[in-house]
Amino acid sequence: GRGLPTDSMKNSVKLQVENIISRIQKHKDEFQILHKLILDSPELLPELQSDKPIDGLSSMVDTLNNFQRVLHSLPKGHMSQLHSDVSTLQHYLEDRMSSLQCTHRKTGTEKNLEALLKNHSV
């Protein structure tokens, strides 16, 4: 099949991101740990700092992967739609990376994140 025009892809990704942001806003009061870990204590999770520069598709996929790990550690239920939205965006970007033949850089943050989540009993 023929790929979507660039503007359509940008609009689709932008809409997905806006939905994710909206869901995070909705849940941040209900799940204080999400807000505390990600927004109030960026030194705990430097992988998820909001001011971390985006360095291409690989960087975006890596950040979404780390965010997914945090979501998996939270109580189930209300977060399922947020998890689904983030997963959809992540898979879209991974497919895009593949079609553009981008390399996925492995970072050492996964072990740090796993240890933090385990130690803080998120």
TrEMBL record:
Does RNA-binding appear among the keywords? no
Matching entries from SUPFAM superfamilies are given as: 4-helical cytokines (SSF47266)
Query: Where does this protein reside within or beyond the cell?
Result: Secreted
| Chief localization | secreted
Q: What do the Gene Ontology cellular component annotations say? A: extracellular region
Q: Which UniProt keywords apply?
A: Secreted
Q: Which InterPro entries does the record cross-reference, listed alphabetically?
A: 4_helix_cytokine-like_core (IPR009079), Leptin (IPR000065)
For molecular function, the Gene Ontology terms on record are: hormone activity
* Superkingdom, natural source: Eukaryota
Cytoplasm as UniProt keyword: no
State the family named in the UniProt similarity comment for this chain: Belongs to the leptin family.
PANTHER family tied to this protein: LEPTIN (PTHR11724)
Name the record gives this protein: Leptin
Q: Which organism is it from?
A: Ictalurus punctatus (Channel catfish)
What does the record give as the organism's lineage? Eukaryota, Metazoa, Chordata, Craniata, Vertebrata
